[in-house]
Amino acid sequence: MQTPTDEKAVFVRSAFFGNLNEGQAPGHFVLQNNKMLRVQLNGEVLARQGSMVAFQGNMDFNYEGSGGVGKFLKKMMTGEGAPLMRVRGQGLLFLADKAQDVHLFYLENEALTVNGRNLLAFDPQLTWDIQRVQGAGIAAGGLFNTTLTGTGWVAVTAHGAPVLLDASQAPTFADGQSAVCWSAGLHVGVNHTFKAGAMIGRGSGEAMQLAFRGQGFVLVQASEGPIVPQSTG
Prior knowledge:
Elements: E1 11-13, E2 29-33, E3 36-48, E4 52-63, H1 69-78, E5 84-95, E6 101-114, E7 119-122, E8 127-132, E9 144-158, E10 163-166, E11 172-174, E12 179-183, E13 187-192, E14 208-213, E15 217-220
Antiparallel strand pairs: 1-6, 2-3, 3-5, 3-7, 4-5, 6-9, 6-12, 7-9, 8-9, 10-15, 11-14, 12-15, 13-14
């Protein structure tokens, strides 16, 4: 989908694009199978707390703080941002989350926005921050997401086989809880559907979707996540 035009070009490698061949990216993030990530650790990696299912070698696991006061306040206000642990050592580390499918992206001077609940692991040299979708208030829920920037691996999870949508081909919309990750360069807003009795997106129980415009992709999972009971009050 994206083709670098010069040595400063931004680029994303993934099996979705057919450009993640052996030798094109460091091999320390590998799919053990479609539901488990194997990390050849020789240093550090950041991973979702509780995602370690096994390891071989010598490793140390520590809670990863929010990365500064600003990020801490964002996490407290939004509930966004995966609870992270920093793993240090050498050996093989196996990660998984609720037997969901695992997908890999290798960023080359690129940025990727990930729904916090879908973030499994990433290289520690990537910088990350919590950002709000413009036009969505805190009450909207699920519209604060984590953006990772730089060069390195990102592993995400998806419930069921996802679909990759090219936002440059047509106006693109997704339920806020179904969107797994997307190109950080996309313009993202909120689309409201004002129709009596409309139920679009069971995750939020509201007729509201994320709207994507520009050059880039959106990965959408086959689930809106847990159904939120409607208030009877």
